[in-house]
UniProtKB/TrEMBL annotation, chains A, B:
UniProt xrefs under Pfam families: Aminotran_4 (PF01063)
SUPFAM superfamilies: D-aminoacid aminotransferase-like PLP-dependent enzymes
Catalytic activity entry: L-leucine + 2-oxoglutarate = 4-methyl-2-oxopentanoate + L-glutamate; L-isoleucine + 2-oxoglutarate = (S)-3-methyl-2-oxopentanoate + L-glutamate; L-valine + 2-oxoglutarate = 3-methyl-2-oxobutanoate + L-glutamate
Enzyme class: transferase
Protein's UniProt name: Branched-chain-amino-acid aminotransferase
CDD domains with a match to the protein in the record: BCAT_beta_family (cd01557)
The family this protein is said to belong to: Belongs to the class-IV pyridoxal-phosphate-dependent aminotransferase family.
Keywords, alphabetical: Amino-acid biosynthesis, Aminotransferase, Branched-chain amino acid biosynthesis, Pyridoxal phosphate, Transferase
UniProt EC number: 2.6.1.42
Amino acid sequence: MSPSAVSSTPSPGVQASELTASAVAQKIGASANLQPLDASKLIFTKTQTPMAVPEPGDPIIATSSQCTDHMITAVWDSTVGWHAPKLQPYGNLSLPPTASVLHYATECFEGMKMYRGYDGKLRLFRPDANCKRMLVSATRISLPAFDPSELEKLIKAMIAIDGPKWLPKSRPGTSLYLRPTMIGSAGALGVSTPKEATLFVISTFMPNLSKPKGLRLLASQNGIRAWPGGFGYAKVGANYGPSLMANGEAISRGYDQVLWLLNGMVTEAGASNFFVVWRTREGVIQLVTAPLEDKIILDGVTRRSILQLARERLTIEVVERAYTMDEIVDAIKEKRMIEAFAAGTAYFVCPVSAINYRDQDWQIPMNQGDSGDYAALIKSWLMNIMYGRDEHEWGVVVEENEEL
Amino acid sequence: MSPSAVSSTPSPGVQASELTASAVAQKIGASANLQPLDASKLIFTKTQTPMAVPEPGDPIIATSSQCTDHMITAVWDSTVGWHAPKLQPYGNLSLPPTASVLHYATECFEGMKMYRGYDGKLRLFRPDANCKRMLVSATRISLPAFDPSELEKLIKAMIAIDGPKWLPKSRPGTSLYLRPTMIGSAGALGVSTPKEATLFVISTFMPNLSKPKGLRLLASQNGIRAWPGGFGYAKVGANYGPSLMANGEAISRGYDQVLWLLNGMVTEAGASNFFVVWRTREGVIQLVTAPLEDKIILDGVTRRSILQLARERLTIEVVERAYTMDEIVDAIKEKRMIEAFAAGTAYFVCPVSAINYRDQDWQIPMNQGDSGDYAALIKSWLMNIMYGRDEHEWGVVVEENEEL
């Protein structure tokens, strides 16, 4: 067993997968005598060794390790609160071997992208949703609170600097991945709430993860990703490392990802939300995905956006409910399955072509060859918002600082 | 959602909470064309800035952050395997912000101690058990395999150097905590098996965690530590950070730790194994603890040692089975509860005086005032082995290098 300090301050009790404004205010107010995260205090140090932007096709892109010139960092400690954030040259972090994050997984993150629009503008997609979820995740993993709108300002400050160079106007329709992260950086081996934390934001190139032949999923048989009373709804590291073993098994058997089941119910595909479109036995076409109430699955921003657009623009039924793999098999057997897809920031909207369940492959229709109709339609709606073809409140234009 | 590289190598499939020699050989053989971890290649660099050893009572001891002069490090990568390990001055680690461990909790560790015996000798307690469990944990979290006996040699090499100074012969009956750790240090944001890992071993001072009035536990009501098909049996970071929120709530309500329940069954106390001694309704005295089969609880070295000594030396029944909090309450109501204790490396054998269950405090007898009889007896047996009063194969003497 490990030691556990008994003198630590209790962690805040907010667990909701979506925070209301009042809950945020309450959380931040709870540490009223500590300095809040304040983007207006940003200290800017420009890199003296700018890096080269890789050309499309450069093999470094596939490594997901090429970052841009700068990063945001902000340190919190339990006596001062948030110190002034910094925009500084990208570089390694120096951590004591006793740092909480290296032992106890006191870490959470967000996945988002910046998009270079066809109109030349740089956009984020619903950054407020990511920043609020980051607070939910930080709270769940006993890391400090912050005002999500301050995090959003810091993200914008960084991409205002790195966007013009790294996502140039000459490459409309492309994106860069953004990774806000918070870690427990206090050096102390007691199992307790970290007394120091470091927030950082980096931006990387990502390989194209789309699957022209559709994702092939291996339904989990023994392993589970998350459970009631756990932390499946939070974007914390503890949901990812433990999933790699099952993911490795899926890949070794010729599949792309695990379709995570819990007591036979379908939850997530890999680290993405999962949707099916089927016809009920009564003939009603439904878009179905797992619900948020039991806190098993991530409250995906793409998931939420798909549900809202489908409700606004489609005439099919949109249903959030617990459903089972057996229901999917029945729909396939009875030729009622229309399509299925995974959805999230990195994989975006990714059609699913097959699911292996109890050692049997079940084919899912993709009636456009590389996609089903609904996935293709929804994907186009989202891309039009992200890349500025449709004006929409979810596509947030970021002012760029091209002087620097 | 997060990206997930589909080209990663599958992680090995060993999941057993105890590895047989053949399983270890198979795991290491699986990467036959990679260099194995080899303690005989150790490269030694002595510190040029030795630190002062804190006196007993120095406040730094309570911070669990004062390490000794040296640390072991060893880097593995997916093309070479294990590079030559180093014994080097204690210092910070430099990690890219994209390092797997900071995002995906690809981390595992061990907790052990070195003991300065009353006979002047330095001992480890069953280090082979910790090193084997470290391999189990590394496998579960998709970190590379190694021969546990090589890790044991590295640990011994470090304490041979730091033991004489940091745990001097003038302080018999004291101990220092040892923390072997492995992290995914590869800088790449794809959710995949890390292509680089770093093993390190550090040693720290720990505050005395004993509770003269006994541990007061708060039984979990909604939160759950581990689940069948999960990873509760492995010493991975993902079991610790998510528990801090409930632990903080317990402390804020005046308790020391959470007693983790799963469907009403008793699993662990904080990050320790949990034991009760009761009289059955038939009048039989039993020592009871949760079983390992369902892989919910950690296969504690202290747990395993207590069970074995109790079976060898006591006449009471020793039972590993699933049991419920309701059974504990019944035993207390019917005055059949004799005592309870938590057990692990850091808390050692720690008597429990109270459990809050469904908002009601249930008192547990401690008939020696600060302990029950069985906990006191078992603790004395273990201490006699650790501190060399009893010659026993579990107390492994480490040769010290007092020249350096």
